[in-house]
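User: Just a sanity check before I run the rest of the batch. Below are the structure tokens for the first item. I only need the designed sequence back.
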């Protein structure tokens, strides 16, 4: 019974961590997905960086691509570190289980040795017969026969228990060795990833130094950009104003009661449904390009090279591959196709009281009044003289400028 109790306890030690192990496996699967996504995005950033490097002159686009690779490389290293932590936890747990198994196996073997020694004293059939026939009554004879059978069964069960423990121990040792090999491989990969990160940071410093020598040129670019941004903002505000007025006129002509506000688009039942659906998909809307990364975020922030210079972005810039298509992030209606100096071609799509803006387009494939579907191409993104292919993307709600990054799906 003592040996059986120890075996049950031993099996509980092995089985109880199953739930925790299942949770770890789920977390590890998530880590694996994240690692694959990061590696795919690094591959895309490499392609974009290669296009910017095709030009002899360094550029902000090249710097942005390197920064993106650095961020992704940091993610890869963090991912590997978490994988190593999980493996270390597995190793510690398994070493504890192996130690318990080895200890209990020794106990089982010692108990079995005692049983064999005790049995050897009455090993002969003569001794067993003497033990049985020396009974003082029939009942005692039956009990002694039953005892001999039970003792024989106990020895057999002890052998089975020893074999079971040995099998579990062998499996745990194999698992332990596998985890140690995985950890060793990950440490090698982590070392390579860290060296790659150091190389990327050196590239970044080199590009910043070269760009710093072009301070006057960069300042001129900032000035031209500010002018282009102002013209684009005025264009968008004018179109929103026109659409608000047009919708109000249409509502009056149809005998529909207007909202009474001059700052909001008057919605029909159809456009109200689109507007509500657009708002309901916040944070899950499609990206305006199939592949790429956010090279400049929304709002006011420091210039990446010029010290003391701030830039304002009413949308986000998305750097992508040459020839990439700009896509509608939601179904809607094209309300404007225009050209703005510094922003190239601009397409504006209405989604009820929401508007999305796609600027810096080389070509346009839609026209005003046209209905567009989700992910339908509205044009191709422009590639500048430095080899940078970058889309300027904005989201408005009537006259309010929104942060597009909070509306599109995270990558």
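Assistant: Here's the designed sequence for the first item:
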């Amino acid at each position: 019974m003592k040996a059986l109790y120890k075996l049950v306890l031993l099996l509980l030690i092995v089985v109880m961590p199953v739930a925790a192990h299942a949770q770890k496996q789920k977390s590890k699967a998530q880590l694996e997905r994240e690692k694959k996504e990061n590696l795919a995005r690094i591959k895309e950033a490499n392609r974009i960086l290669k296009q910017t490097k095709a030009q002899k002159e360094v550029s902000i686009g090249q710097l942005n691509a390197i920064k993106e690779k650095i961020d992704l490389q940091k993610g890869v290293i963090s991912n590997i570190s978490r994988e190593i932590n999980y493996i270390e936890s597995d190793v510690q747990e398994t070493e504890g289980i192996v130690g318990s198994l080895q200890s209990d196996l020794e106990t089982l073997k010692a108990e079995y040795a005692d049983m064999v020694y005790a049995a050897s004293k009455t090993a002969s059939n003569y001794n067993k017969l003497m033990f049985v026939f020396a009974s003082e009554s029939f009942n005692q004879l039956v009990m002694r026969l039953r005892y001999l059978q039970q003792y024989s069964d106990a020895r057999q069960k002890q052998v089975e228990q020893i074999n079971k423990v040995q099998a579990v121990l062998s499996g745990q040792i194999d698992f332990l060795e596998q985890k140690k090999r995985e950890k060793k491989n990950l440490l090698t990969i982590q070392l390579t990833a860290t060296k790659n990160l150091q190389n990327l940071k050196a590239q970044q410093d080199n590009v910043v130094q070269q760009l710093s020598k072009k301070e006057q040129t960069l300042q001129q670019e900032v000035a031209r950009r500010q002018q282009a941004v102002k013209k684009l903002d005025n264009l968008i505000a004018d179109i929103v104003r026109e659409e608000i007025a047009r919708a109000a006129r249409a509502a009056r002509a149809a005998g529909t009661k207007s909202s009474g506000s001059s700052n909001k688009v008057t919605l029909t039942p159809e456009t109200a449904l689109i507007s509500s659906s657009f708002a309901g998909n916040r944070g899950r809307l499609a990206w305006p390009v199939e592949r790429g990364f956010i090279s400049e975020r929304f709002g006011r922030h420091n210039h990446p090279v010029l010290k003391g210079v701030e830039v304002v972005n009413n949308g986000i810039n998305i750097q992508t591959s040459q020839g990439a298509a700009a896509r509608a992030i939601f179904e809607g209606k094209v309300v404007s196709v225009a050209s703005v100096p510094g922003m190239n071609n601009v397409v504006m799509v209405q989604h009820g009281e929401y508007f999305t803006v796609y600027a810096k387009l080389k070509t346009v494939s839609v026209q005003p009044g046209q209905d567009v579907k989700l992910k339908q191409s509205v044009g191709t993104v422009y590639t500048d003289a430095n080899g940078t292919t970058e889309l300027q993307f904005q989201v408005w709600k009537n006259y309010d400028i929104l942060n597009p990054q909070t509306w599109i799906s995270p990558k």
